[in-house]
Amino acid sequence: MDWGMKNRLSRLIQRDGRALFLPIDHGYFQGPVHRLEQPGKTVEPLLPYADAIMLTRGILRSCIDPFIQKPVILRVSGGTSIIGEDLSNEEVTTSVKEAIRLNASAVSTSIYVGSRYEHQTLMNLSNLVNECEEYGIPVMAVTAVGRELEKREARYLALCCRIAAELGARVVKTYYCEKGFEKVVNGCPVPVVIAGGPKVESELEVFNFVYEAIQKGAIGVNLGRNIWQSDYPVAMIKAIRAIIHEDATPKEAHQIFSDVKSGR
Q1: Are the C-beta atoms of residues 239 and 202 closer than 8 Å to each other?
Q2: Which of 63, 147, 193, 262 could form a disulfide with 40 if both were Cys (CB 3.0 to 4.6 A apart)?
């Protein structure tokens, strides 16, 4: 592995081998998501506790202070919307040259295994890896499932993650599943981070699935809505960071959340 690739990965994945990525790229197909109407304001108080931020070039240019020191994971796939016919009909929307101009530490693209546009999205990933490897830029594959959330089971996720790694992804983002998640991680030879999905009912539920995913081999999270849609987003990200980087239990994380929430 070249020095540039190692350096970029070392900015994303910390010395303890763990990572907390904060995605705010949801608007590329969902528009102004609740509490992400003004992305710059949403993310500003959270950045000190994230290891990297994931977003599109448009939001990076227009909403993020160029003096930030956090590494950027640039979302480079898109071309569909939540009201369109098929979310899987994505293509690469942003060039690698643009990623370099924007000083991205990594780029990300979605793959839709088993979908109508499976081949297209897998070739998006393959071609992106081919080009990014020339410049030492890691590619993170996002194993997307569109509206079909019932696909989030171990056999399917393991298939997606392994294919993404085989095609050259340096990191894979996937969903956590309670049953068999160890098989997902063990079958993927590159680091795995988990997505959050839709906002869940309680903070403790988030802490539990983040903790369990770490115990079963994930290196961290790429978690958005369950942080910035919280009524107490700073408390949430501090608690999740404690699980990832300080080996806090869900109970300990909930205490951190409660303390920060109450101003203690």
Answers
A1: no
A2: 63
Tell me which residue has tokens 């640039």: 74
Which residues are tagged catalytic?
173
Euclidean distance between CA atoms 212 and 102, whole angstroms = 35
Domains of the chain as residue ranges with CATH: 3-262 (3.20.20.70)
User: Whole-prediction pTM value?
Assistant: 0.96
234-250 pLDDT, tens per residue?
999 999 999 999 999 99
> CA dist 105 to 246, 248, 255, Å?
24, 28, 33
Q: Which of 203, 208, 202 is nearest to 194 (CA)?
A: 208
Beta bridge partners of 39: none
Q: What is the per-residue DSSP string for 96-162?
A: HHHHHHTT-SEEEEEE-TTSTTHHHHHHHHHHHHHHHHHHT--EEEEE--TT-GGG-SHHHHHHHHH
Strands 52-55 and 72-75, by their bridges, are: parallel
Distances (CA, A) of 92 to 74, 76, 96, 124, 193: 12, 6, 10, 6, 22
Q: Which of 234, 235, 239, 204 is nearest to 221 (CA)?
A: 239
Residue type at position 243? I
**Burial of 164: CB neighbours in 10 Å, binned 0-12, 13-18, 19+:** buried
Query: What is the per-residue pLDDT across 103-149, written as a single tens digit (0 to 9) for each?
Result: 999 999 999 999 999 999 999 999 999 999 999 999 999 999 865 55
**Overall size of the chain counted in residues:** 264
For residues 209 and 174, the answer to whether their CB atoms sit within 8 Å is no
Q: Residue type for 255, please? A: Q
- What digits encode the pLDDT tens for the residues 73-83? 999 999 999 99
N-term to C-term CA, the chain: 45
